[in-house]
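Quality-control log, excerpt.
Job 1 of 2 completed; input and output follow.
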Amino acid sequence: MQNAKLRNFNFLNLQSAIYNLQSGFTLLEVMVAIVILGLGLTVVFELFSGGLKSVEISNDYSNAVILANKKMGELSIKEMLKAGKETGDFSEEDNYKWEVEIVPYGEGKEKMEIASPLARNDNPIKIYQVTVRVFWEKGLTEKDVKLTSLRTYMEKPLEEKTL
């Protein structure tokens, strides 16, 4: 009887030992876990990269708006506006360029839809549409920002000739 108990005991110990050997991870399970971890990290790095690109693009556009506003301010202190186009670049910024277009309002792309007393030809007050465009190259494409404003200008009346 003791022999039978000893055999059962050895048999149970053998099963327990085999079970303990199989309690770890298999190579396949480890490889799958590494692949899932790698894919997850790749997605996270792509998200960070996209965020950094968005910040850079936002910075470029913000800088362009500031420069266009600065150019518009320079135009606002001019005593006399002359219709036409001018181009140039900013000395403090390397890759930003500007373009200014001044047209009498109502003669450009936009037509005046309502009759205004300011639209008469004999009126000394003239309305100009001022468009400032700041553009820069980013990679192979050209990006730009446009600011448009209206400005009034009063022409000096012709002096009457005295006889």
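Job 2 of 2 completed; input and output follow.
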Amino acid sequence: MTRQLDSTGLKRLHRGWRRRTEGRVALVLDRLQSPFNVGSILRTAAAYTVDHLWLVEGTASPSDPKVAKVALGSDRFVRWTWCATVEEAIRAARADGYRAVGLELADDAVPLPELPVTEATCLVVGHEDRGLTPAAMAACDDLAFIPQLGRIGSLNVSMATAIALYEVRRQEWAAAEPAPAAPAGN
């Protein structure tokens, strides 16, 4: 009979995946106004070991109680810095060795699964309704989009960020050793 992992089994499972993960991932959040989106992104960032988060002026603060409610304490696992502009945030990411990849539905964007991921990738995500500004797109090294199959043309920014973070890690894991198996028994 299959059973859910207990806390020890879960720790062993995640430790095996952490050992296969060497690449660095960061995020730039450009003017995300919804505290719920920011909180969700913080929680996902902690789950995928995002090394740094650059928050552009106008983004909901991690100290906002609504952000904290969704983040459930995960904000303590992610370093973050305020920046006045998206260009400043991307410059800071580049200075730290990251390649900036903007997530946007744009003419020059490539499907994210086809974009070769480097060992230091910074995903740049934009405003909930307006997406990335032209200045943000121009400042990025690459633009990528998440292919979708249904009739809905776009995703919520926190969901898109989660998918993109997973894809960056998935590409790294696919290039590494075979996946660790789930621990036997509880």
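Post-run check on job 2. The first helix runs from residue 7 to 19.
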